[in-house]
Design goal:
Layout (H helix, E strand, L loop, with lengths): L2 E2 L5 E2 L1 H14 L7 H15 L2 H8 L4 H8 L10 H9 L12
Antiparallel strand pairs: 1-2
């Protein structure tokens, strides 16, 4: 299968892949893949509209696949800063670096 560029010139899949690799390398984005783009589109669409729209944009017939594999989940951890602060403020009776159990 070939694609056409803006000038309506046919591009072979190999040329498209080569140009994709070159563009990523020039932008120092070697880690970006087509899947990365799809996940980004799904996540942004879900945040701005909803999961159903994100699934439709990616061509999924089910929102479940989109939600499970494409929409990034927020990473939230409990605030344990108070516990960590206490670690540095009370010396261990067993000496430096020793943990009391």
């Amino acid at each position: 299968m070939s694609r056409r560029n803006r000038a309506q010139v046919r591009l072979s899949p190999n040329n498209v892949r080569r140009q994709w690799r070159q563009a990523r390398a020039e932008a120092d984005l070697d880690w970006v893949t087509p899947h990365t783009f799809r996940r980004t589109v799904a996540t942004l669409t879900k945040e701005e509209i909803d999961t159903k729209s994100a699934a439709a944009q990616l061509g999924h017939s089910s929102e479940e696949v989109t939600d499970t594999y494409y929409i990034a989940k927020p990473v939230q951890v409990p605030d344990v800063s108070g516990i960590l602060e206490r670690l540095g403020s009370h010396p261990s009776p067993r000496g430096p670096g020793k943990v009391v159990r």
